[in-house]
Amino acid sequence: MSKYALYKLKDMITNVEALAWSIGFIEFWVLMWLFVFSPSSPAQVGWGEAMIKGNIAMAYSFLGILSMSSAAIGLTAGVYRSSFARRFITRFGRLGPASLVAEDFIGSVVAVVFFAAVIFASVEVLSYMRWGVLVVPDSPVGVLADLVLAGIILYWLAYDVAMALIVARRVRGVSGGSMTTLIVGFIVYAQLWVSFGSIVYLIPLAPLPALLMYHSLSVYPPVGAYLKWLARVGTVKTINLRLAAASSIVWALVLAAIAVVLTRKGGAVSVEEIGM
Amino acid sequence: MLRAENLYVQYRWRQEPVLKGVTAEFEGRCLLLGPNGSGKTTLFRVFSGLTPPKSGRVLIDGEDINKIYARAGALATNLPEVYNLFFLNAYDHVIVYADLLGGDADKAFEMMERLGLRRDYLKKRKPWELSGGQRKAFTTGIALSVGARNTLLDEPFEQLDPAKKAGLAEELSRLEGTLVVNTHETWVLKPFREWTTYLMFEGKAYGPVRAGDLLESRLVRGEVEDAILVFEASGKVFSLVKGEEGEALTELVTLDRIYEVGMG
């Protein structure tokens, strides 16, 4: 292995702008969630410990994914910015195209999982300070696997957006296009209030909060409208966890396959054409 | 050894090609002289795998560039777009590139210091935050530290003061392998008089000739028999000849002035 993966990781976790979006911005939502949107005295609104635990697990699941989506903005910009350096390195450096993508992938996924872990830890600590309840995931390995899967999907989504912009020769679309991952993150976040029904299996990342909830609390979560489910208002259809896992894995594979196609097409676009 | 065979580069459909059938072979010490916008940098980008040609072939040490992958040490260049990998400072970029390209980071830092770029300063700036001259020193330092079999230097003397230009010229003379330096400045003919030289105008390459022969040549309009080189620029034919007639090529200082000569 070369130093590439290590420096990719350093690149992502020392970039002040990326840190501001993926940690600073999301921490604001952590504080809002715990200190503004959640009741200070759960007993007064009839919340038992199980409900508080559900609330905390939802907080780190949804905000963790939002944090990763935000970090992935930097991934898109990075892939775009470095696309020509990558072309040179893969020919005249010691990493071929596959090795470079592998190292880039490792460095990036570790970084986005790190951002999610920071949000996870801050939710745990702040919730404990507020309610004295600590939510230890029933399956830490499962939670980690879910976060890694989210990182993988976001990595390939960010990569595909950057390569699509290169293939389409749309230089001006970079800043707007980079936001794609965050938009997807907010679509996932919207599931707190709305239920997409069976469409949830067709949206990248959307079934992942359910998997996180399951691995955290060993409960079968709904297809959406999580707050309604938590407050036990009405009935919400329970998610099919196998289908949720299959959907996430298929999305990761589809996005990776698109990346291969776009990378090949991107090789035919010259530096001068996109003005780098 | 680098070889271009009938290379055409066109960016957009129906746009005039930037390279128009360039055939050239570079081995040992070589100069590529031409005015700004003549296609020198584009030719380097094609050799570096950054710009795909519309037609023609590029061979690096006899092998088609399309078949070359993970070949550290085959080619190094100072083209700035190659050194834009991370959002990290210039110092970190030197470390990563030395590792990836099989170069020597200490040698790169030493070279940069000789070109006026301090190591501690690199820790405070991202590559794109360096000034034009500093960035040239940064990319040239990395390219030279690789010790590649083929090295391409794009305008390495640009924005350097005379003392540093002389120091770099001396350094280049010591380099092993194939080295191609592209520039629009004609003073390089003097220190590099034994180097093989190609002239480049409007997407076409002319040569090879010995730099020393160009140094003694004069530029005249029209096609002259027994000329060292005949080329076209701005729709006019020029010849480089030995003798007293015309303007000495070195007096032009920069080949951009060819067009002034063409206007009479």
Structural class given helices, strands, pairing of chain A? Answer: mainly alpha
How much beta of chain A, percentage-wise?
under 5%
- In N-to-C order, the SSE pattern of chain B is EEEHEEEHHHHEHEEEHEEEEH
Order of helices and strands of chain A: HHHHHHHHHHH
Q: What's the average pLDDT of chain A?
A: 88
Q: Give the % helix of chain A.
A: over 70%
Shape of chain B: globular
Indicate the proportion of strand residues of chain B.
25-35%
Sum up the overall morphology of chain A in one term.
elongated
What's the rounded overall pLDDT mean of chain B? 91
What would you report as the Rg of chain A, rounded to the nearest angstrom? 20 Å
> Measured on Cα atoms, how large is the radius of gyration of chain B?
19 Å
Helix proportion of chain B: 25-40%
Biggest β-sheet: strands ordered side by side in the sheet of chain B:
6-7-8-3-9-10
Largest interface: A-B, 35 and 39 residues
Distance between the termini of chain A: 29 Å
Which structural class is indicated by helix and strand composition of chain B?
A: alpha/beta
Quaternary organization: heterodimer
| Number of helical stretches of at least 4 residues of chain A | 11
Structure explained in plain terms:
The complex is a heterodimer of chains A (276) and B (264). By secondary structure, chain A is mainly alpha-helical. Chain A has one domain. Chain A is built from 11 helices and no strands. Chain A starts with a helix and ends in a 10-residue tail after the last helix. Chain B is an alpha/beta fold. In chain B, the strands form 3 sheets. In chain B, strands 6-7-8-3-9-10 form a 6-stranded mixed sheet, with helices on both faces. A 4-stranded antiparallel sheet of chain B has the order 2-1-4-5. In chain B, helix 2 packs parallel to helix 5 and helix 3 packs across helix 5. Chain B is globular, with a radius of gyration of 19 Å. The mean pLDDT of chain B is 91. At the A-B interface, helix 1, helix 3 and helix 4 of A face strand 6 and helix 2 of B.
